[in-house]
Sequence to fold (112 residues):
Amino acid sequence: MSVENWSESVLLVELQDDPVFTDDLTAVLDQLEENEAQDVVLNFAGVNYLNSSNIAKLLRLRKLSQTNSRQLKLCGVNTHVWGLFLVTGLDKVFTFYDDVAMGLASVQIDRK
Fold:
C-alpha cells in the first residue's frame, strides 16, 4: 500500500492509476474516519487519468478534511490530469503544489 504516516499528523499518499488509486483513497478515508487529526498530502506523480469515481472520492476526502479542519494538498499533477481539474473547475476547489516537498512544507507552514 502506498499510504504512509509521514509524521504523527500527516499522511503521505503515493497515488497510482486504478485500481490502486481507488484502494488507496478508500484506505485514506477509513484512516481519517478513525483518526480525524491528520492532514493529507496526495502525490499524483503516478496518476495518468481520473474517472468520475476517483473525483467523487477526492471530493469526499476534501469534505472530510474540511469538516475536521485539516489540510488536503495535491502534488505532482501531470498535464493530462491537470486538464481534467481545469475542465471540471476543481482547480479552484483543491490546493495544488508542484511536488511533494512543497506540499509537505506547506502543511508544516500552515499549521503554525
